[in-house]
Design brief:
- The complex is a heterodimer.
- Chain A has ten helices and ten strands.
- In chain A, α3 (about 100-110) crosses α5 (about 125-145) and α3 packs parallel to α6 (about 160-170).
- By secondary structure, chain A is of the alpha/beta class.
- Chain A is globular.
- In chain A, strands 6-7-8-3-9-10 form a six-stranded mixed β-sheet, with helices on both faces. In chain A, strands 2-1-4-5 form a four-stranded antiparallel β-sheet, covered by helices on one side.
- By secondary structure, chain B is mainly alpha-helical.
- Chain B has one domain.
- Chain B has a two-stranded antiparallel ribbon.
- In chain B, a hairpin with a 2-residue loop joins β1 and β2.
- In chain B, α1 runs antiparallel to α9 (about 175-190) and α3 packs antiparallel against α6 (about 105-130).
- The chains are: A alpha/beta, B mainly alpha.
- Chains A and B meet through α2, α3, α4 and α5 of A and α9, α10 and α11 of B.
């Protein structure tokens, strides 16, 4: 299904307006397999719109999105995850009343779906599917050290753990591209450092490409191979972390801002 | 925590024990207590079927429907029409189409047919309605209840209109009611605590995040709605064959309010909560109904207090809302493990 040649994700001329407000204008990006790309810009620069367009929560007014060579515009969000693009949300969106493990299971189930008949009758198919889900769930809980808390409700976790849970929930869908929406928001310096290690580890272990939208410059500069700078819905600059830091226009629109 | 975390053999033993208990009660009860109490237990079984099936959509899936009793009505009339003896069909429903008037089904097939008709109706009605959420879906499903009521009153060839639909064979005995209750609870529990049923809760907790893990909201909500409607139809058939005579008014707002309060008091995301809610509300209102006639305790004389049971039920409702807004059981289930000390799995709150 996924072809190996060419970029993993490519957008061209991506434009989205909300009434008279142009949220994203003629944006384009190219992300290769295994690459970590950062998208930065002040609030309202179109970063979240960009994520919502790629993950299918919004449809663009015009422009093209290709994933593994195939166009994905107009596909609904639940189809796009199946293709291999998973995401987290700004400020986390967990299944609060469900247990930590059930949060992961709900996502791991995507590749092991069983229906109403299996629910009523059980049988070998359901048992195999459940065993596969359990295996992924255990592995991911262990990865972020949540095994001991897997029976707690998600809402009872400390904030940092909630963010990590959301990341492994996205991973449980077996993506090849992971979209992280401000993963370090609300974290202190040491928590951010742990997060940095985690993102780097999952990228290697699961052979992922990652796009990070973030305000935390430490995280972005240390992790990303390439950074795209957005302002007022348009791409201002794209380059390596060093180039971005050196660029006068970028300093003005972004670094000067904070 | 959200599911019965019992191992397979332990679960089977518990299930077997419950089954034996139910069978024993079914066989022994009529010999132990008077007919009035047996009738109360039958109604309680039917209400458990209705409240638990309503809980699948309203509680587990978080789509608060007020239209459940609409399906109960459709179930009662469907199986009533199907199982009315042929001679009675000629007498009571002279304008019934020939293909319906010429036969009469036994109780069991008529009940299953009622369930299937309701499931099919739920698929049609739910396709647009299950796209709504929150208050919108409650109001829209209330609209469905009203439409069912109006159709029943006006389709007098089939229903005798607002007049009493009578002559339905009185076949809902204690074993039938208990049997269907066990079947309903077993099926609902199996669905709710399977991976399939986990999707109901996932969609309830956060529809946007549910889509982000690959769930399409409409089919999940619709399947809970259809399963719930099937058992509403079954319960409606049982209720019809218990009453023998009913009218569209039997299945309207007062019954809706009664079932909703049982569900809310018991706990919306819990099957055992539904059972608890039914038992609690039924016992309270039966006890109070007898007290309403007044009491003479020698020195103390309590005059008749008509309507007291309604007032107390209303107060119960308010108190639960204040002190346990998610109902007595919330989204937990009664299980043997609940009363034992659980093995610590890491820190707990």
């Amino acid at each position: 299904m996924v072809s190996d040649a060419g970029p993993l994700l490519e957008t061209r001329g991506l434009t989205k307006s909300f009434r008279s407000l142009v949220a994203l204008s003629d944006q384009s990006i190219r992300v290769d397999r295994g690459e970590i790309v950062g998208v930065i810009g002040p609030n309202g620069s179109g970063k979240s719109t960009f994520f919502n367009l790629i993950s299918g929560f919004l449809q663009p007014d015009s422009g093209e999105i290709r994933f593994a060579g195939a166009p994905i515009v107009a596909q609904p969000a639940d189809r796009i995850v199946r293709l291999g693009i998973a995401r987290t949300f700004q400020g986390t969106r967990l299944f609060q009343a469900l247990s930590v493990a059930d949060n992961v299971r709900a996502a791991a189930e995507l590749r092991q779906r069983t229906g109403l008949a299996a629910a009523l009758l059980g049988g070998g198919r359901r048992r195999r599917a459940e065993a596969a889900v359990e295996e992924i769930t255990e592995e991911l809980l262990d990865l972020v050290g949540l095994t001991a808390r897997q029976e707690n409700r998600a809402r009872d976790l400390p904030y940092g753990d909630q963010r990590r849970l959301e990341i492994i929930r996205a991973l449980a869908t077996r993506p090849s591209l992971l979209l992280l929406d401000e993963p370090a928001a609300g974290m202190d310096a040491s928590e951010t450092k742990v997060l940095l290690g985690l993102i780097d580890e999952i990228r290697t272990r699961y052979d992922l490409a990652v796009i990070i939208v973030e305000h935390d410059m430490d995280l972005i500069m240390n992790l990303c191979e390439r950074i795209q700078v957005l302002a007022h819905g348009s791409k201002v600059f794209e380059g390596t972390p060093a180039e971005v830091q050196a660029h006068p226009a970028v300093r003005e629109v972004y670094l000067g801002h904070g | 925590m959200s599911g019965p975390a019992l191992s397979r053999p332990a679960g089977l033993i518990v299930f077997g024990a419950v089954l034996i208990l139910v069978a024993a009660v079914t066989l022994a009860l009529p010999h132990m207590v008077n007919n009035y109490l047996v009738r109360v237990v039958i109604v309680m079984c039917i209400d458990v079927i209705l409240v638990a099936s309503m809980g699948l959509g309203n509680g587990f899936t978080g789509v608060f429907s007020l239209g459940h009793v609409g399906f109960v009505a459709v179930g009662a009339y469907t199986s009533g029409i199907l199982s009315l003896p042929v001679t009675m069909k000629h007498a009571f429903l002279p304008d019934l189409p020939h293909w319906l008037a010429s036969f009469s089904l036994p109780f069991l097939p008529a009940t299953i047919a009622a369930g299937l008709v309701c499931a099919a109706l739920a698929a049609v009605v739910g396709a647009p309605l299950m796209r709504l959420s929150g208050y919108f879906v409650s109001v829209a499903t209330l609209g469905f209840l009203i439409i069912v009521n109006v159709v029943l009153i006006n389709a007098s060839d089939f229903t005798r209109g607002a007049r009493t639909f009578a002559g339905v064979p009185l076949q809902t005995t204690l074993p039938w009611a208990m049997g269907w209750m066990v079947v309903t609870l077993t099926v609902l529990a199996r669905i709710a605590y399977s991976p399939f049923g986990r999707r109901f809760r996932v969609v309830r907790e956060d529809p946007i995040a549910a889509r982000a893990v690959g769930l399409s909201i409409l089919p999940v909500r619709l399947s809970a709605f259809i399963v719930g409607a099937f058992f509403a139809g079954v319960g409606g058939s049982l209720y019809g064959h218990y009453l023998g005579a009913f009218s569209p008014a039997s299945f309207y707002l007062p019954y809706t309010f009664a079932l909703v309060s049982m569900l809310v008091i018991g706990g919306m995301g819990s099957i055992s909560g539904a059972v608890l809610g039914v038992v609690l509300v039924t016992v309270t209102s039966e006890v109070l109904r007898n007290l309403e006639r007044g009491l003479d305790l020698g020195v103390i004389h309590i005059p008749p207090l008509y309507g007291a049971s309604q007032i107390v039920l209303g107060m119960m409702f308010i108190l639960v809302m204040i002190f346990r807004p998610s109902g007595l059981m919330g989204d937990r289930e009664v299980s043997p493990g609940l009363f034992l000390r659980r093995k610590p799995t890491g820190e707990r709150e």
